[in-house]
User: Which sequence fits this backbone?
């Protein structure tokens, strides 16, 4: 059997046991709310094998690219929300999937795009994106634009969606609960306004991993979207959505150089393999570009972090003297990522383990747009 020792570096390692534990935690959180449906966001995992675990029975999912929509539709996942505001140039691709029996719902916050959706000859349905405080895409739930855009969609309006991305700025359960409550109020207000205007509201979709876990009231909501909870990362552990032992994905790397004079080792996981995300920089503990673990995924080197990255080089430093006798050139280690979504984006497959070093499966993933 292939083991971690046999793999080329750098590469992704996915622990199946941790993944399943994370999925069960989110499923239990959603089950607190009768009738609420979990619509996992696959933008991080981008893998059919993961989707089969996260959305059993080919359940509803969320995607973020046309490539994902095609890939998951080909794997039998027909009920999708494409949760990035659509451009008219992409409508043909989505309509083609729907003509083959899918129900890929697009989103918009633009009245001209709504008109293009309404005028398109193919089968399309759309949600109006509502901004409940993140300040990115969407229209305010009390804005005249909400009913104007939905009205322009007409019979193709399927409801509304929100994303509370600002929940990641919170550092306490109470803070995440407050964001979730505000998101809920905004979503319900928007849905009620569309119904009062005589428009169909089949879908009222909201979510992020923090608000899905900590939302106290989900009445009036049809489905909730979350994605990073599947894999976890150092930032999520910092804000309290999971523990440090719940990070399912790591990057396998090899030592390429030793620099005792500056208490550092070089590894072959650099900026491309890890990303340059610095999400923990503003968290209580700054993990640089990742936390270095041993081959079994344990923090055996103290708080050794990737302090600097170059394209194909990572420089690992420790607060205490590094154990250079255990880190010769060629030695393998694993790096827990700062932001798993960006780290996994550079890779094309997962090497799956189940609590040990044996590779029990290799799962593909879809990249590109």
Assistant:
């Amino acid at each position: 059997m292939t083991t971690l020792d046999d793999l080329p570096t750098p590469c992704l390692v996915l622990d199946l046991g941790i993944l399943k534990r994370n999925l069960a935690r989110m499923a239990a959180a959603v089950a607190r709310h009768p009738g609420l449906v979990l619509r996992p966001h696959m933008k991080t995992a981008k893998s059919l094998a993961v989707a089969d675990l996260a959305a059993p029975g080919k359940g509803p999912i969320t995607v973020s690219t046309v490539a994902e929509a095609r890939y998951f539709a080909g794997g039998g996942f027909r009920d999708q929300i494409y949760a990035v505001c659509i451009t008219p140039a992409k409508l043909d691709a989505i309509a083609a999937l729907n003509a083959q029996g899918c129900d890929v719902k697009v989103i918009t916050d633009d009245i001209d795009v709504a008109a293009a959706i309404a005028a398109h000859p193919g089968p399309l349905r759309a949600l109006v994106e509502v901004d409940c405080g993140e300040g990115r895409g969407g229209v305010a739930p009390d804005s005249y634009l909400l009913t104007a855009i939905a009205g322009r969609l007409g019979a193709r309006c399927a409801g509304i969606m929100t994303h509370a991305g600002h929940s990641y700025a919170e550092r306490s359960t109470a803070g995440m609960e407050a964001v979730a409550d505000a998101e809920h109020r905004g979503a319900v207000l928007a849905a009620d306004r569309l119904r009062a205007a005589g428009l169909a509201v089949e879908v009222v979709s909201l979510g992020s991993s923090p608000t899905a876990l900590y939302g106290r009231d989900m009445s009036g909501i049809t489905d909730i979207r979350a994605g990073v909870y599947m894999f976890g990362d150092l930032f999520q552990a910092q804000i309290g959505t999971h523990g440090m032992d719940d990070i399912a994905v790591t990057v396998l790397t090899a030592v390429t150089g030793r620099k005792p004079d500056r208490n550092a080792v070089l590894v072959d996981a650099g900026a491309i393999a890890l990303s340059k995300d610095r999400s923990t920089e503003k968290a209580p503990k700054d993990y640089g570009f990742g936390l270095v673990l041993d081959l079994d995924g344990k923090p055996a080197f103290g708080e050794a972090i990737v302090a600097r990255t170059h394209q194909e080089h990572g420089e690992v430093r420790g607060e205490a003297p590094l154990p250079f006798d255990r880190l010769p050139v060629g030695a393998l280690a694993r790096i827990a990522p700062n932001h798993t979504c960006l780290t996994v984006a550079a890779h094309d497959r997962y090497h799956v383990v189940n609590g040990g070093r044996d590779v029990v499966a290799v799962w593909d993933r879809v990249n590109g747009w």
In short: The first helix runs from residue 16 to 31. Residues 301 and 323 are 7 Å apart (CA to CA). The chain has a mean pLDDT of 96. DSSP finds eleven helices and 17 strands in the chain.
